[in-house]
Amino acid sequence: SPSMLVVKGAGFLPAPPLLTQRKIAASLTLKNHPRVAGLHNLACSAFSKHVHGVEESKMVRSKTLAFSVPRLVLSIALMLLSVGFKPSSVSAAFKEFPSEEISSVRTSVVGSPLGRKVAIPDGLAFSARQDIVADSLVYRATEWKGIFAALKIPERITESYAEFQDLLTYKVNQLLTANVFSKLIMFFSFSAALVFFGAWLCLVTGETNWRSALFKSYALLNNAPGVSVVDEEKPQSAFIANILFVTGCLTFAVLLGTITSAIEVALSSALSGTHKIVERDHIVMLNWNDKTIPMLRQIEAAASDGRIPLKPVVILASKEKEEMDQELADQLEKTTLPIFTRKGNPGTLPDLRMVSAGAAQHVLILPDETKDEADLISQAACLQALQADRQPGKKIGPNKNDIKVVVADCDPEGERDLDELMFVTKNSFSRRIMAVTALEPRLASVYTDILDQSKGSEIYLRSSEMYPWLQGKSFKQMGAHFPDSVLLGWITSDGKVMMNPSGNEILPEKSKLVILSKNDKITCWRRAAQTKDAAWSPAVRDVEQALRADPKHVLVLNLDRDGEILSEIDNILPRGSSVTAVHPDPIIFWPNHAKFKHIQGSSLSKSDVKKIPLHDIETIIIPADGKSESLTAGERDARVLAATKIVLEARKSQGHTKPLQIIAEIQNSLTCSLAEKFALSNPGVHIQCVQTSYLEAGAFVQVLWNPEVNSVYQDFLDATGSEIVAVDASFFGPSGSIRTFGQISELAMSKKAVALGILRKDGNVDMSPHRSASFRLEEGLKVVLFADGV
Known about the structure:
six-stranded parallel sheet; 24 helices; elongated
């Protein structure tokens, strides 16, 4: 009701008519209700203090209170006091009042003169006054209960409290998760406020001016030397000083915690590798496979040798970062190459941005076991879009200042719409390298010298415009202009690769020379070097015999399911050779040059291997099963090692002592050393380990820096055209005679061959020696040629 109710004598508490409230209390016995009893006791206590104060000061007076906000606030306050300030308890308190009691209360007060003034006689006993006022408060609280229920005030209080709690939690979390600079700004702002507040307290307790008060507050809050809380004489000053000192300790703890937390977060972010890598002109490797570690080793070797600049390498792969870091730590213990790893999807722009792929100068996209070639193309397309945005002045291409992007191990017959990228076909190196060893096992050292970045020679491309004096000269004439390197051919301006061209072929204009050299400091003399004439050995009736090899008898173990290496071996071996393959399944293979025999069985079965006749076998090739995707590189090595041990036991059991060459495709250096130790207990056996992944990685590094080299390698390792062969040095002169490498080169050039280097008896190789270097033609010494018509 909006009417006015005046209580005279109570001073500040509203009350219904005395008879009315007595009637309610008597009929409903509300005071026996637990919640009403609580309100009654609180009201009595408050009124007792008020009345005592009035009687002592003789200031009993009348006051009119409006039935509006003050009454509502007072009722809510008393109710909250009764339930302990908990919103849930408030709601429960209202629910404890039966609805029939509310109805009775409303019925009892109908017609009551709520608007008239009710007088409480001054002579009334204090206990009676107390009961009247207390019962009046109980009545009003009960009356307001119905109003609260209708307005859903308890629910609103609960919701408001929950919203305030959520807001406070949210703001605190925002403060805790803010960057360290925001935290420090808020901290210093709060500290400044504390200094001013402490200065005001010091002024209240006796300081004379703001200057001294501010200094004292600052000194106490920060525990400055020379200021002590025990020096205060006045109790209030000592109390304020101790309060400021304790507050200063707490604020210092907050500051220390903020800085410590920021350091921990930064360290955790750095260790977890979630922050963005900000680099430029770096190397990016997408995906992770068994070529990742060899690639990193080759990049480090090339950088250490000065062939390429030392740049950071960033790896983005779907593999867990902890696993990548652990493998890097195990395989590259003392690396000087800056390597960063990130887990992510190389086919999404956000993850590519995380490794700054758009700002990279060299990008190598490796195959992933879980992705096909279409995924690699998708990654390349995203990379192109990102690089076009970050480096608008550059393009992807083979030129010096272009961005180099190489996609490794692609299907040689796949269709590709991204012409700017350089695609390296899968198995193009490993199969070819393993096949050529069937002809001469020591040729593995030749390929290692050419492809390995840590040693030996390397293929370089040089523009013919750098050497204008070579224009108009033939291929045969040009070789004498390079004293310490070997000219292999050239790439024409339209991209055609001419390896080992005819001796009379004239160098086209604007071509790029393909040169084999020990370093990038290639010397080209203006005048051709004069070489003393030499002749082929008179013991050779047919000079073409120098470029022919004797028939070979080869055994292939641990064959792939599709037997792809058999075709490579058949193309390499001369006519009259034979190839025996062991495989548990039938093999359909039609050889062109060699005789083929299939033995059904397993290379890892001792009983099956013992059935193989080894008396005529000169070379055993044990490739890794690259088609078994479920096997790791370590498991493939283990199978090759087991097959090597089994075939040696079979050879010993058959009593053979004929010299035997074993070519094992093993990737791990430790496994290689274990395999080579098998030869120590088997006289006449030489084991040559070929780390094809490592050699492929070396080629990839060269292609990554100069994509045009890829076409050279493809031609270099192609089954058609020129081949790398090793011929006896006795063909180049009488045994024991001395020949310079220039003389050997001239003799080889006369038969459309290019002399690459010298292969010694102990397996060491000297590629692209100086033309004036002399060699004694003795037994076991071989000349490495790049020749046609083998």
